[in-house]
């Protein structure tokens, strides 16, 4: 999947599709405000490509919000490499019960994310500037029930960065496209070294024209396993 900021040609915004009210429920007006911010500022500030605007809902906001289907009540979520807020912001809008931390290294992007969080009054979102694998970041966050990512890195690297941020027994949930099964076939042995197993390809948002394809993996339970995974992540 392409980073939204890589596109460069001009385009216009997409009207709110009907299905959006099913996905966001009574939070739809907040999702619409986020869409407006992306349309008005995302391109200007180099955070999204203009070509993404006509598919802002169908390819981005809805595909990210339906992640909600694989996240239980009141779980904690860390979203690594959030960019302009995907998938973390649509998820936080749709699910105020979740506590979501967005980890993003680029100042331009974290400044934007801070503004979105404040502007939309998202009391359930914290923004941290840094790389997921940095010690300073690991010190600031408690391992979460779920670590999400979209368009950030190939599976092996993603597992290396995500593992120390997932609590024992928690899940890695990576939004992937058609490459999902191939990535698992290629990387599963390395991923196991980081203490993540039971990798599966899942789909959510089957009511959407293009459902979201996920790689889901489970973090080992024990503290000893967790320490071994941290050591493996440091070595690689
Ligand atoms: C291709 S963009 C995807 C952004 C967003 N997830 C989306 O789907 O639109 C990749 C993002 O990952 C961030 N990133 C790259 N390396 C990272 C790391 N080690 N830890 C956290 N974020 C990282 C980049 O700064 C960038 O914002």
UniProtKB/TrEMBL annotation:
Q: Which enzyme class?
A: transferase
KW Methyltransferase (keyword) present: yes
UniProt xrefs under InterPro entries:
rRNA_ssu_MeTfrase_G, SAM-dependent_MTases_sf
Where is S-adenosyl-L-methionine bound in this sequence?
A: 81, 86, 132-133, 150
Q: Where in the cell is it found?
A: Cytoplasm
What CDD domains does the record tag this protein with? AdoMet_MTases
- SUPFAM superfamilies for this protein: S-adenosyl-L-methionine-dependent methyltransferases (SSF53335)
User: Could you tell me the EC number(s) of this protein?
Assistant: 2.1.1.-
Cellular component (GO) terms are: cytosol
Q: Which UniProt keywords apply?
A: Cytoplasm, Methyltransferase, rRNA processing, S-adenosyl-L-methionine, Transferase
> What one GO molecular function would you report for this record?
rRNA (guanine-N7-)-methyltransferase activity
Could you tell me which Pfam families the record lists for this protein? GidB
Q: Which domain of life is it from?
A: Bacteria
NCBIfam families (UniProt xref) = rsmG_gidB
| HAMAP family per UniProt | 16SrRNA_methyltr_G
Q: Which family does it belong to?
A: Belongs to the methyltransferase superfamily. RNA methyltransferase RsmG family.
Give a short account of what the protein does. Specifically methylates the N7 position of a guanine in 16S rRNA.
Q: What is this protein called?
A: Ribosomal RNA small subunit methyltransferase G
Q: What is the lineage of its organism?
A: Bacteria, Bacillati, Actinomycetota, Actinomycetes, Mycobacteriales
